[in-house]
Write a structure and sequence with these properties.
Chain lengths: 192, 192
């Protein structure tokens, strides 16, 4: 009945959701993977929904935390945005959060759906702040941040569809190439 | 046993797949929606897999045909690309093809997965041709086309996640804004 058991259960659920989704994951599978006793599962998470809420919230927190570590750094905003876009990703596996938008259990549950919405709202805000530091006004920074996050999410969809991580790299390269001249121009640097 | 019955069955399957996915759609539901007799279903489609292959291929053909009608037109390539990106879309419903990348039945079947792969391969090629007409070399045109298709697919994911079609519009606006100055610069026009 320890906090350790709770954390182990959540981690097991996170891993299973990443591979199979929430709808297709049973409490029995979470138990088997975690190695925790059945009594502990029902103590910490009286229902499958309680476990799903905790595990999805943890995945959102983990993923936002790692994005913030890249986007909130001390480097120039252009560098931080490029670092975020170019982060190594297991693209053909799909985004752990983005894929939940196709999970019927997640989309049919107000709490779970709220977590997915919180993820994208906060992620777009993080990226928009970096674009705003580059001198874009708030509305333009928000549009460009939505474009950047869409490129990553779309890159996952294309990589899964084509069975090839190269689709993500190509989508990111195309976006970075588009962002370059505008940044130089905005900085007032001479064009070659 | 007519071709008309076959078409009606395929249309019913396409509509059900668009709403519920392939995995969650039963032959019984397709029969009920189509109004066609059970004998006709089994005559045209001996297995659920045969029906899915025909319906997914038809959705890919329909969607590619409508993209080609916009992208292959007589207008300037910049205009055709913008028209394609700004096409009205029921964004919160998700892409009829893109969502299949999260469907376990589709991803577990070589033929169905091949149809999804064909869709994105041909769509990226269509968009890349328009960028190539703007003077980009083949590799750059391909990257930019992958970015553009990713923005649409990611726009669907964000709109579903946030329950708001505005996310798609914002992602598209951000991309169009990025494409503008580069196009002017590539044309050699003066900057204001």
């Amino acid at each position: 009945m320890t906090t350790e058991a709770r954390r182990t259960l959540i981690e097991a659920a996170q891993e299973l959701y990443a591979t199979n989704g929430v709808a297709a994951t049973t409490p029995r599978e979470v138990l088997a993977r975690s190695g925790v006793g059945q009594g502990s599962l029902y103590h910490h998470f009286p229902s499958k929904r309680d476990l799903a809420a905790a595990a999805v919230a943890q995945t959102v927190d983990d993923t936002l935390g790692s994005a913030a570590a890249t986007l909130d750094g001390a480097d120039a905003p252009q560098r931080r945005i490029a670092d975020y876009l170019e982060r190594p990703r297991a693209a053909t596996a799909g985004c752990r959060v983005g894929r939940l938008t196709a999970d019927p259990v997640v989309m049919g549950d107000e709490t779970l759906r709220g977590e997915v919405s919180r993820y994208f709202t906060e992620l777009i805000e993080l990226v928009a702040q970096a674009f705003a530091e580059q001198g874009l006004d708030a509305a333009a920074a928000r549009d460009r941040a939505t474009t950047a996050v869409a490129v990553i999410q779309g890159g996952y969809v294309l990589s899964r569809a084509l069975g090839d991580d190269a689709a993500m790299s190509s989508a990111v390269r195309g976006l970075l190439e588009l962002m370059e001249p505008r940044t130089d121009w905005a900085r007032g640097e001479e064009q070659a």
